[in-house]
TrEMBL record:
<keyword id="KW-0521">NADP</keyword>
<dbReference type="GO" id="GO:0006006">
    <property type="term" value="P:glucose metabolic process"/>
</dbReference>
<comment type="pathway">
    <text>Carbohydrate degradation; pentose phosphate pathway; D-ribulose 5-phosphate from D-glucose 6-phosphate (oxidative stage): step 1/3.</text>
</comment>
<comment type="function">
    <text>Catalyzes the rate-limiting step of the oxidative pentose-phosphate pathway, which represents a route for the dissimilation of carbohydrates besides glycolysis.</text>
</comment>
<dbReference type="Pfam" id="PF02781">
    <property type="entry name" value="G6PD_C"/>
</dbReference>
<dbReference type="InterPro" id="IPR036291">
    <property type="entry name" value="NAD(P)-bd_dom_sf"/>
</dbReference>
<feature type="domain" description="Glucose-6-phosphate dehydrogenase C-terminal">
    <location>
        <begin position="217"/>
        <end position="506"/>
    </location>
</feature>
<protein>
    <recommendedName>
        <fullName>Glucose-6-phosphate 1-dehydrogenase</fullName>
        <ecNumber>1.1.1.49</ecNumber>
    </recommendedName>
</protein>
<feature type="domain" description="Glucose-6-phosphate dehydrogenase NAD-binding">
    <location>
        <begin position="36"/>
        <end position="215"/>
    </location>
</feature>
<dbReference type="GO" id="GO:0004345">
    <property type="term" value="F:glucose-6-phosphate dehydrogenase activity"/>
</dbReference>
<dbReference type="GO" id="GO:0009570">
    <property type="term" value="C:chloroplast stroma"/>
</dbReference>
<dbReference type="InterPro" id="IPR022675">
    <property type="entry name" value="G6P_DH_C"/>
</dbReference>
<keyword id="KW-0560">Oxidoreductase</keyword>
<dbReference type="Pfam" id="PF00479">
    <property type="entry name" value="G6PD_N"/>
</dbReference>
<dbReference type="GO" id="GO:0009051">
    <property type="term" value="P:pentose-phosphate shunt, oxidative branch"/>
</dbReference>
<keyword id="KW-0119">Carbohydrate metabolism</keyword>
<keyword id="KW-0313">Glucose metabolism</keyword>
Length: 509
């Protein structure tokens, strides 16, 4: 299989890759799968969950006997739910020729039950409808909590008592936020565990379904060239960047309550950092991977206030400020930008700064990991030609967006008679190398939950360790009412981030 990767025929490569990677095939058993979308009338359900389920159906990845139930308070009929699904179909599949036919088949499996979130009676009614569809087969039930977190526990209680499977598994996908800090997160975990065990809880962070997150482990553990360099001996610093070019514009209510540190850093970026920095797991088994991630998180010290910068975007004649949003309070101190330097106190990473940057309303939409390597000691070319190359270190960039790519900056001779050096890229651009549809992030994660594959879901001890890294900083910022540094909409963020990067010797990409 290894040498077949050299072939240029991408289509020919894929089956070989499939052979190498243990892909778990969808259960094609006689048992029934009931997928219950709680909060089916909401934005997440409409825009992400139903389209992802439809894509999985079109890809033939759902079990033979599956049924989807929407559950919410809104008084919708089955027909109204189905119309809502059609109206919001923005998935990759809708461009295919037989989409309409597939959609008709899919909609026949979709039903709606209107009920209160805290009513055991209403969940009992749901159970009866589910049983009818399951038609005496053994049943597996997957609940997706697409609802605000303050009603999670009511739903879990009712679902557990009145609508859980009697002869198969029952799993619950829980959407973030998983609490606001260490205490509230522990409380949520404790309350969930009154009704569910850890194996039943699938804490979802949709960014972890990104192709490059999965690829990070492939890159590290199936290439000989990177792993020996993956430590403080060769890596000078790591940047983990997540920037968006849009502000909150009308969607600020949720965000004003949480801020960018809770929304992006504490969960998503910290998970990426853990995958980046962890030791080789015993196997690709979810528990082995999560065991290694949690060790990284537990080896980190809480972020110090002096190692963090927070910002908030301001408006101008063209763009609204964060506080112009009618759903945001006028004197909000909520950060829409944050940068923080984190350190991992273990033998591999001691002293290496990990600079995390996340922000809204910045100049570009960008998600990437940048790894800067150390300088070449006693660089011959610097000495002989006095070039500036010593400052241009090798850099490995793993980019999720705008275009998925992995590239390595190397120093290279410019062709010609003289000796002129240049920094250029070895570039793997995914859309050129693999010109094919990339499944949506929700598709991957929903399929994993159906198949019981937990490696991209967050375990409670990871969550706990992740909160410990950021809770003291969040507490200090909130107690001291620290004002975020204002930055212009569409800029590169507050000036403070450049000082923070300089303090830790990070050259910002
Ligand atoms: P919505 O605000 O659209 O809520 C979903 C549904 O929950 C609503 O349709 C409503 O249904 C019900 N609901 C809303 N507010 C309340 C309330 N106060 N009390 C009881 N029921 C209520 O949320 P989203 O769909 O946007 O998100 C759902 C969850 O997913 C949230 O926890 C959110 O943080 C998280 N999330 C959302 C993302 C997104 O892209 N939207 C991305 C990542 C996470 P009804 O009135 O019919 O009962």
């Amino acid at each position: 299989p290894a040498n077949s990767l050299e072939t240029e025929d991408v289509e020919a490569v894929s089956p070989t890759i499939k052979e190498c990677v243990p892909i778990i095939e969808t259960e094609k058993t006689d048992s029934a799968l009931s997928f219950i979308v709680v909060g089916a009338s909401g934005e997440l359900a409409r825009k992400k969950i139903f389209p992802a389920l439809f894509s999985l159906f079109c890809e033939d990845r759902l079990p033979e006997n599956f049924t989807i139930f929407g559950y919410a308070r809104s008084a919708l009929t089955n027909e109204e739910l189905r119309n809502m699904i059609i109206r919001n179909l923005t998935c990759r599949i809708d461009k295919r020729k037989n989409c309409r036919e597939k959609m008709d088949q899919f909609l026949k499996r979709c039903f709606y039950h209107s009920g209160q979130y805290s009513s055991e009676e209403h969940f009992l009614e749901l159970d009866e409808k589910l049983k009818e569809k399951e038609a005496g087969r053994s049943s597996n039930r997957l609940f997706y909590l697409a609802i605000p977190p303050n009603i999670f526990i009511d739903v879990v209680r009712c679902a557990r008592r009145r609508a859980s499977s009697e002869n198969g598994w029952t799993r619950v996908i829980v959407e973030k936020p998983f609490g606001r800090d260490s205490e509230t997160s522990k409380e949520l975990t404790r309350d969930l565990k009154q009704y569910l065990n850890e194996e039943q809880i699938f804490r979802i962070d949709h960014h972890l379904g990104e192709e490059l997150v999965e690829n990070l482990l492939v890159l590290r553990f199936s290439n000989l060239v990177f792993e020996p360099l993956w430590s403080r001996n060769y890596i000078r610093n790591v940047q983990i960047i997540f920037s968006e070019d849009k502000g909150l514009e009308g969607r600020g209510r949720y965000f004003d309550n949480y801020g960018i540190i809770r929304d992006i850093m504490q969960n998503h970026l910290l998970q990426v950092l853990a995958l980046f920095a962890m030791e080789t797991p015993v196997s690709l088994n979810a528990e082995d991977i999560r065991n290694e991630k949690v060790k990284v998180l537990r080896s980190m010290k809480p972020v110090k206030v002096e190692d963090a910068v927070i910002g908030q975007y301001k408006g101008d004649s063209s763009y609204p400020a964060f506080t112009d949003d009618p759903t945001v309070s006028d004197n909000s101190l909520t950060p829409t930008f944050a940068a923080a330097t984190l350190f991992i106190n273990n033998a591999r990473w001691e002293g290496v700064p990990f600079l995390m940057i996340a922000g809204k309303a910045l100049q570009s939409k960008r998600a990437e990991i940048r790894v800067q390597f150390r300088h070449v000691p006693g660089n011959l070319y610097n000495r002989k030609f006095g070039t500036d190359l010593d400052k241009v270190t090798n850099e490995l960039v793993l980019r999720v967006q705008p275009d998925e790519a992995i590239y390595l900056k190397i120093n290279n001779k410019v062709p010609g008679l003289g000796m002129r050096l240049d920094s250029s890229d070895l570039n793997l651009l995914f859309k050129s190398r693999y010109p094919r549809e990339i499944p949506g992030v929700y598709e991957r994660l929903l399929l994993d939950a159906v198949e019981g594959e937990r490696r991209l879901f967050i375990r409670s001890d990871e969550l706990d360790a992740a909160w410990k890294v950021f809770t003291p900083l969040l507490k200090t910022l909130e107690e001291k009412k620290t004002a975020p540094e204002l930055y212009s909409y569409g800029s590169s963020g507050p000036v403070g981030v450049h000082y923070l990067a300089a303090k830790h010797g990070v050259r910002m990409g």
